[in-house]
Amino acid sequence: MPSILSPLATGLALAAAPAAMAHHSHGNYEMTEYIRMEGTVTEIHWINPHSWIYLEVTGEDGQSDVWALEGASVIELRREGWAEESIRPGDRIGVRCHQLRDRSNGCLLGYVTTDGGEEKLFD
């Protein structure tokens, strides 16, 4: 007698796939353009499902603001050659990222330029 559990499990997995993909939507970011900025890392969180860099940026008016920058997962970053020691609080970095659509201080990271001047993927 064939088991009904295998087709049922497959059906449930396929039904859940769109919800899992929706989690990774970047609809809240302006994905058609990059902005560039430089600043000092105040915090970095090497966590899954997304890493975070908090960057203090001084604007043209001389005022400092902290930006929350969303990066890839730890596993993806390691595949790109990043390590926890690659970026630390106090480091000056440059970033190229997709800003939040509401223009608040948040970005989806695309690339990070470290003190050595090398721009590397952080997405």
Report on the biggest sheet. 5 strands, mixed, barrel
CATH classification class: Mainly Beta
State which percent range the strand residues make up.
Answer: 35-45%
Could you give me the name of the CATH homologous superfamily?
A: Nucleic acid-binding proteins
Please trace the helix and strand order, writing H or E for each element: HEEEHEEE
Describe this structure in words.
With 123 residues, this protein is an alpha+beta fold. The chain has a single domain, classed as OB fold (Dihydrolipoamide Acetyltransferase, E2P) (Beta Barrel), CATH 2.40.50.140. 20% of the residues lie in helices and 36% in strands. The chain has 2 helices and 6 strands; from the N terminus they run H-E-E-E-H-E-E-E. Strands 1-2-3-5-4 form a 5-stranded mixed beta barrel. The longest helix is centred in the first third of the chain and has 19 residues, at 5-23.
Features:
123 residues, alpha+beta, OB fold (Dihydrolipoamide Acetyltransferase, E2P), 5-stranded mixed beta barrel, 2 helices, globular
Please render the helix and strand layout as text.
Elements: H1 5-23, E1 35-45, E2 52-58, E3 64-70, H2 74-79, E4 92-99, E5 106-113, E6 119-121
Parallel strand pairs: 3-5
Antiparallel strand pairs: 1-2, 1-4, 2-3, 4-5, 5-6
